[in-house]
Amino acid sequence: MIKNKRLLTIICLALVVAIASLFFPKGQEAKKDEPAKVGVLQFVTHEALDEIYRGIQAGLAESGYDDKKLTIDFLNAEGDQSKVQTMSQTLVNNGNQVLVGIATPAAQGLANASKDIPVIMGAVTDPVGANLVKDLKKPGGNVTGVSDRTPIGAQIELMKTLTPDVKTVGVLYTSSEDNSKSQVEEFTKLAEEKGYKVEAYSVPSTNEITTTMNVMLSKVDAVWLPLDNTIASAFATVVSAAKEAKKPIFPSVDTMVKEGGLASVVINQYELGVATGKMVAKVLDGQKVGDLPVEIFAEGQPVVNQKVAKELGIAIPEDVLKTAVEVIK
């Protein structure tokens, strides 16, 4: 009787193993052959962030993740903080293996939505100040990425070279963006050390930009803009007001120089995106996100808008034109 029970148990176990061998390997193979899935959240539409997204796709492709091996789940919050929260949760629920946040609010939204899925930052100037990582070299947790450290010192030197008569500089930024606050603090400190008077104005949203610009332009000789997603999305308004007042703008993004700024020393946004894409690929390949140091882009190159300079009656020195990575005519 005991032997029969043992025999029956063995037969049952054999059947379970046989059934498992029929179904589970096939399921595993299907998953292995399926393309990787990456969720990307962009905070707002403007050319600089669009360039970063384009770079991310190129960086992934260069790392072996082309359209056949990768599916990108892309969402854009269009500057709406409530959408950042809901879209972050959507990307988590969609089963993405890695999440990418383009700009600080997007990265923060994704980091708050999940503590398990790897989050890669793209274009976050102050990851520590934004409470995304505790240590740039050893992030730990589930967040790392690429930081665009604005070359503020070099921007101030360029401002001094091109507009030596400027005494007071106006700064416009968004009060809700942690990324912007840290840049404004650094700019104020460095500019005051160089003898400038700094007048900083914050806005809660794009609705207040026109009024704030009109007030600020009556008190300053030039305008400096940090890497600020809200201001960038309404940059045409800033340009219009400054043009009427005949005051130069020194932005922190190359695309904004093209759109009406005078000049800047900038980080290449596309290359920053490529680096972000390659970091995503490393995580997809199995590296632990917490072990990957934050990559910092800090070396900038001059970009000047000769057309705007002529409109303002500013002569750009020949040595600046020679060193500029791009001259807009």
UniProtKB/TrEMBL annotation:
The lineage of its organism: Bacteria, Bacillati, Bacillota, Bacilli, Lactobacillales. This is ABC transporter substrate-binding protein. NCBIfam families: ABC_SBP_TrpX (NF041285).
